[in-house]
Write the structure tokens for this entry.
Amino acid sequence: MCFFMRNKFANYHFRSTVARVTFAARFMETQDYLPIVLQSMVAVGFVGLVLVVTHFLGPRRKGAVKDENFECGIEIQGNARVQFSVKYFLTAILFVLFDVEVIFFYPYAVNFKELGSEGFIAVVMFVTFFLIGFFYVLKKGALEWER
Amino acid sequence: MKALIALTILAVLALFVGLLKSRKLLLPLVLLGLAGVLALVMQYGCQCEGTFFHQYLDESTYRNMFSFDKFAAVFAGMMLVATLLISMLATDGFIYNESHRPELFALMLFSLCGGIVMVGSTHLVMLFLGIEILSIPAYVLAGSNQRDSQSNEAALKYFLMGAFTTGILLFGIALMYGGSGSMSLDGLMTYSRHSEVSGMFKAGMLMVLIAMCFKIGIAPFHFWGPDVYEGTPSIITSYMATVVKTAAIAATFRFFAQIIGHDAAWMISLVWMAALTMFIGNLTATVQSGFKRMLAYSSIAHAGYVLIAFFTPSLQATQSVVFYLAAYTVATIACFAVLIGVQQQRKNDLFESFNGLAKTNPLAAFTLTLALLSLAGIPPLAGFFAKYYLFSNGWAGYPWLILVAIINSAISIYYYFRTIIAMWFHEPTDEPLSFSMLQKVVLLLTLAGLFTLGLMPGLLLDFLG
């Protein structure tokens, strides 16, 4: 729809006088937001529609067995909310940190020659900060799996 | 700027002291380090010439993003003094999480770095960065008592509220940039003097102001305050009530006092918010049964008083903000110094726990009494002169607001006196509290501060020019 309108106005442009061109351009500017409005209306409308429609279409069966958390024939034992140590979590967080560091290296590597010694000093400072952090993490024993 | 770098290094050093076997080095390092940074700031502040703000375009402004001028130096110095005093309380204050003491110190210092960035920022991006550097360690500190569900609750509430606020702030900054084409302070100032300020700019400024009011705790954006202050470990609460509040108020003042002061539309809404904040803070504080929650509401009320200075932007108004926050900070730290002792040994902070403190612990009771009197604004103390400067400057703007503020000061006397009466006229029910050497030093220092600021306000005001 959006493309169609643009073409229409482009033709209008072509044939009209200068004053009309500016008017059309300004009109197109506001027109550009129309797809966004349409998109959000469709998104909200679809969600609302589906919510309402499923309510009417789906069969309704209720019962003690049907309403159980895991309806799979086996009786539930205990609570699912138990504490367990997520060692992997810390490793994952550290990975994200150092991954970001590596991402910063790419643009530096591309511009290595242009940035010269000043850029090199900046990057060395950046890496030093990270190394301090890495040293701290290491000393704190965050990477000792068997603890 | 040197001070900022030194402070960051100090925080990293504090972290690494934690790796050593012995931690005896930690407290001396932090105290000496903070004193050194304070000396740097003072030395720089004395060199600064001219009035507070107008130093944007010289070499020291870091491409118009950060200016360590007199305004920044004064507030940075104040926050450093506050952190120094709080660090002295930390021997007893951090006892709930002994194993992470160096990390707690380091987080506090990192957060302080953010505060200094905030008060020195002359660019919306730096303001945002400062707020984040200040807030993120504060979220962690709020939840640093992992075994306590209240501390966890406080951290979660603080974090969620803070995250939403950050979103609103960023959206506002984007709209302000869209409207004015500039994010630097002088660009915004020039633009806001235009006869035609675009609606986008106004919407953006509204959102940024809402976010800042959240951070300061101005009604109707104060709801997170009491819950967070109450649940957070007391020593961290003292940090939040003094340093975080000072930084947020100073940054808001620097950015918006000029813009607000020249536009009646902003003024009128903020005047009402100030009145509302005073009433909500003071009236709710009267019905509290816990000392800490009462202090939380009183800190909301004090933020309301400070707003008065926003309506008559001038050098005097700036001075009155500085003086008011200095008096408030000293008195608040004195209150928390006693509260930490009471909470640890009586296991609660009800007013009954303060019964008979004058007989058992005269020094603590005396200091707390004077601190509360200063917060209420009783004459020979710092709080009276702070209120006097603030109100006499504000009289030119909105006289009725000053009347509201005076009525509220009268209300506040009621709840401050509840503790004083409990300490002096009730019989002690428990054995005496024991205060450590450092706690006593803090009590004496705050006592000296209350009297010095009250009897010789010239000392601070002369420095301000």
Notes: The interface with chain A takes residues 12, 15-16, 19 of chain B (CB under 8 Å). Residues 266-465 of chain B form one domain. The radius of gyration of chain B is 21 Å. The first helix of chain B runs from residue 2 to 17.
